[in-house]
Write a structure and sequence with these properties.
Its cofactor is Zn(2+). The protein is mainly beta and about 230 residues long. It is built from 3 helices and 12 strands. It is globular and about 40 Å long.
Amino acid sequence: MQGFTAWPQQPMLSGGGLTGRYMLQQFHFHWDQSRDLGSEHTIDKLHYALEAHFVHALENLTIEQAARIPYGIAILAVFFAISDTPSQLRQLENLFDMTTAFGSYNSVTYRANDLLPEDREVWFLYSGSLTTPPCSENVIWTLLAEPIYVEESQLEELRHRVSNTGALLVRNRREVQPLNNRVIYMRARKGNGAAHSTTYTYSKETTSLKEDILICYSTVVPEGRVRCKVHLN
């Protein structure tokens, strides 16, 4: 989904090891025909059913300009686990229903913030690449460790979308890639994390990251104010 550059207050990402302010350009999802393999990243070798990528460009640059410079793009990744709990994706279900082909335009009312987990205290950061061609090596990745939820029926809806080639999108994820000696930075939980249900143990050594991350996604856009372009590919 695109259209954020026209929002009155464009969603923004900064801090957490990033080198500047990054403005949200679009977000998209990756999934698989198997509920056990949908994500493009793993934590402790664990895949999630769905992964969302919030793609940002360095402030005052277009996404095309940002793609040509080191660390010009910052992507925030969010994992989705299967659950019967009502999902944050419900606010986008009408949009999914209306969208059947590449390049469809629809209006939608939502906050990007509602597609993020409430618990954002633990995350990982590394320097990597886009997961789609041309797979440029100029991306700063931030992975929120705590997942949110997706219902099985919503995954099925995504798998039955039609791509610009006319084929069903039962799978659109890239296989997990080797680290190739990349340094992985981890922002650990502060103080006593006993109030949280998830305990994290990580099989890869990480470098500690102290700086907080700032995710400014709270702007609500009224229906019809912005027309968002939906890419299904």
